[in-house]
Structure formats: C-alpha cells, structure tokens
Design brief:
Strand content: under 5%
Radius of gyration: 13 Å
Shape: globular
Number of helices: 3
Helix content: 40-55%
Length: 79
C-alpha cells in the first residue's frame, strides 16, 4: 500500500481559507493576540496537523486542544 505524503503537497485555496477561519476562531475563543509567540505556535501546530492528512475542521481543532503540552494556546486568559 502506497503512503501519500501530505507534507510536500500544496495547500489548496479552499483549505487555506478553512485553516485561516479555524485559526481566527481559536484566537477569538481563547483571546490570543494575533501577533506573538502563542499565535505563531498555534499556526505552526495547525499546519503540522493538516500536513498529517487531517482535513476535518473539528478533528483539527480537537487535535490542537488535546495536545496541550505541545501547544500552549489552549488555555484561556484569565483576569
């Protein structure tokens, strides 16, 4: 069985839009500044998960939230 490599595959315009929308949803939900280290970590992790072949928005989001140790952005900012 041939294994498809998603890492080198181009991201389609529709998927770029989907990833951008998910990024915006998460930064809004967790009050993460769009500029800075946490946002960069979120974007990098989101792309890394996408590159494994995950295309479902809910699975992408839950994968980000499950990997708390890898991605610091899942904790909401508390006053």
């Amino acid at each position: 069985m041939e294994r498809r490599s998603y890492e080198s595959a181009a991201i389609s315009p529709d998927d770029v839009e989907m990833l951008g929308n998910l990024f915006e949803q998460i930064v809004d939900e967790y009050q993460i500044p769009r500029e800075g280290e946490k946002a960069e970590e979120l974007a990098a992790r989101l792309i890394a998960i996408y590159q494994t072949g995950v295309r479902d928005v809910e699975v992408l989001k839950s994968s980000l939230l499950v990997r708390k140790a890898d991605c610091v952005v899942v904790s909401p900012i508390t006053p």
